[in-house]
Amino acid sequence: MSILSIKNLSVQLEDKKILSGINLELLRGKIHCLMGPNGSGKSTLAQVLMGHPGYLTTSGQISILGRNLEEKATDERARLGMFLAFQNPVAVPGVSVANLLRMALGQNHNGKGRSKHNPALNLVSSVNEKILAVSRKLEMPREFLNRGLNEEFSGGEKKKLEMLQALILSPRVAIFDEIDTGLDVDALRIVAHGISLLKKAGCSILLITHYQRILKFAKPDYVHILIKGKLVSSGSFILARKIEKSGYREWLSP
Ligand SMILES: Nc1ncnc2c1ncn2[C@@H]1O[C@H](COP(=O)(O)OP(=O)(O)OP(=O)(O)O)[C@@H](O)[C@H]1O
Ligand SMILES: [Mg+2]
User: Fold this and answer.
1) Tens of pLDDT along 89-102?
2) Neighbour count for residue 122 (Cβ, 10 Å)
3) Is the distance from the beta carbon of residue 39 to the nearest atom of ligand 1 less than 6 Å?
4) What pTM was estimated for this model as a whole?
């Protein structure tokens, strides 16, 4: 079942064309891996899906469960169940990880208005328990939760924080932009386990990566190749293996 549908999407930045005629259906409970050379437009696609206002969509349509996302701001998209883990997560000093998660959980598509309609203490404590349980799963020290979001966290710790947010919010569509970059081998396994948990919960996953490493632990159902802003090929896990071996030569014109 298709959760996110991208039809004929073309995007430019000032007068530079970055994405051309992208067609992609992200399916429920499936891992879609997106690969492509540096600068091919992967992060741009992720940002555009989340409604980044800096890009100009010149054609096409994005919809989640049949609802057109055009004109929908990033926060509305998040409430509809979209989540993006950034390639370079930004620090938000003064906003603790725990506070952000509590606020977001009260607003998202699973818990819309919950905190407003039921501000009972037991709800707050069950949210806290959930946050603690997930942070334990990610082998994350408890003190992380009280620190400012991404403030002075190491590269790998920031990536784990992105996964913590995804698991707490349990989105319909989760986009991970190079979540595997900078992770040590244990962290990689933990983060990949997080992806598998999301998949099991029915989340549709877009996993942007350069490497096969993470795919061994979180095996993709589909692999898509983006070259110079165009989707040139889609296939199975075998496609990722082929790229690891021979790169993107076959799709790059001399
Ligand atoms: N704000 C910007 N100003 C100018 N050029 C930009 C901007 N954002 C993106 N680009 C350009 O758009 C193209 C696509 O960039 P994007 O970050 O989407 O690539 P990517 O596939 O994610 O690359 P990587 O694998 O290195 O992360 C690049 O040529 C990049 O330089
Ligand atoms: Mg990128």
Assistant:
1) 888 888 998 888 88
2) 8
3) yes
4) 0.92
